[in-house]
Amino acid sequence: MAVRERRERERAERHRRIVAIARELAEEQGWDAVTTRRLAERIEYSQPVLYGHFPGGKDEIVAAVAVEGFAELATALRAAVEGRREPADAVRALGSAYLAFAAAHPALYSAMFESAALPFAREDTPAPLREAFVVVRDTLAPAAPGDPDRHAEVGWATLHGLATLGRAGRLPPDGAADRLAHAVDLLAARG
Amino acid sequence: MAVRERRERERAERHRRIVAIARELAEEQGWDAVTTRRLAERIEYSQPVLYGHFPGGKDEIVAAVAVEGFAELATALRAAVEGRREPADAVRALGSAYLAFAAAHPALYSAMFESAALPFAREDTPAPLREAFVVVRDTLAPAAPGDPDRHAEVGWATLHGLATLGRAGRLPPDGAADRLAHAVDLLAARG
DNA sequence: CTCGAATCGCTAGCGATGCTAGAGTCACGA
DNA sequence: TCGTGACTCTAGCATCGCTAGCGATTCGAG
């Protein structure tokens, strides 16, 4: 009896460790370095164990890391916006936090938007994904000229574009602050 | 003598074929299907021949496809903007052409911005990349509140964000037209 | 308490990947 | 005529994601 419980605890713990180590490895050396063999070695189990936890294989592990990322992004954005009464001020804080998050966790961000195939904008979308979007929408809503959803989508696209283009070296490294300020001006124009 | 010339012609032709077939294969079945073996088989040569043309291996081939894509994007954007006097009208045409291009060539677009590691915003940036950016900047310039470069960067980021988020299913499929219209409003606000 | 069944994790291996070493073949110039 | 150099091939390496099949451990029924 007690053995069963201990096993379940160990199993859950191992599950968490797989996700944590996958993320760690990715942030240290990039997703190319995250192989099932390396992952197995670090959790000190053999490869097939990974498939007992994630039948979908590596993709499912990356997706799990991505969901974790969305939860943290939502938290970071909420914390940044909290207490900002002035809409323009809130938008600025949101954008700043968003870009800071992407810059601080490039591999995590890449899993969230490129590597992982997550169901998005659908019924079975994981909660953290919805929550992150809700923060963006609610923050941008007061400044929305028309439909808040549309405005949020465009605002999010702008931030996402700045994050990815910047990270890929597609934009001059200096001037990041100017770009953010400019984007905020556009998005919060009609307070 | 003539043999040498013929060889050079054949070599150049083969070079083009490698890039063309890589792109073809990618647009048909995605970049995962573009393997050096398949590529070699389709050009009817052995694998090592690929490395004679692209010492950097697969990455360099993808980069070549990406450069081709930027040239075509620049052409498409120029054609769309041509003759549009009204700034807002030009911006709308630019955005529409940009998103249409990304939607029509998803694999190509992915090579341009995700797969390939191209030098961007640097001295040795390939000409087609610069040209594509110039079209965006010049079109958005009349509507720029401040620095045209910054405005163009933000505008490009918005379009890029809409393109990638849309393609990855991160945005509701309907409402794409609304989003574009809204983005154009924001970017061309101060005609 | 014993023993079959089920669960668990392992070793070993499959097909495929990007890439390269070495050998063989051909046209050219001394 | 024959050696040289440029080309292309076959064969192979290390690594990848993933899985079949086996041995060990634990549980529950008799």
Largest sheet of chain A: none
Shape of chain A: elongated
Mean pLDDT of chain A: 92
List the secondary-structure elements of chain A in sequence, H or E.
Answer: HHHHHHHHH
* Number of separate helices of chain A: 9
The radius of gyration of chain A is: 19 Å
**Structural class, judged by helices and strands of chain A?**
mainly alpha
How big a fraction of the residues of chain A is strand?
under 5%
Number of strands of chain A: 0
Distance between the termini of chain A: 62 Å
Tell me which oligomeric state these chains represent. homodimer
**What is the largest interface, and how many residues per chain?**
A-B, 38 and 38 residues
Helix content of chain A: over 70%
Low-confidence residue ranges of chain A: none
Short summary:
The structure is a homodimer of 191-residue chains. Chain A is built from 9 helices and no strands.
Report on the architecture of this protein:
The structure is a homodimer of 191-residue chains. The first copy, chain A, is mostly helical and 191 residues long. Chain A is built from nine helices and no strands. The first copy, chain A, has helices spanning 2-29, 36-42, 47-53, 58-81, 87-104, 106-115, 127-140, 148-167, 176-187. Chain A is elongated, with a radius of gyration of 19 Å. The mean pLDDT of chain A is 92. Chain A binds chain B through residues 113-114, 119-122, 145-147, 149-151, 153-154, 156-162, 164-165, 168-173, 175, 178-179, 182-183, 185-187, 189, and chain B through 113-114, 119-122, 145-147, 149-151, 153-154, 156-162, 164-165, 168-173, 175, 178-179, 182-183, 185-187, 189. The structure holds a DNA duplex (30 and 30 nucleotides).
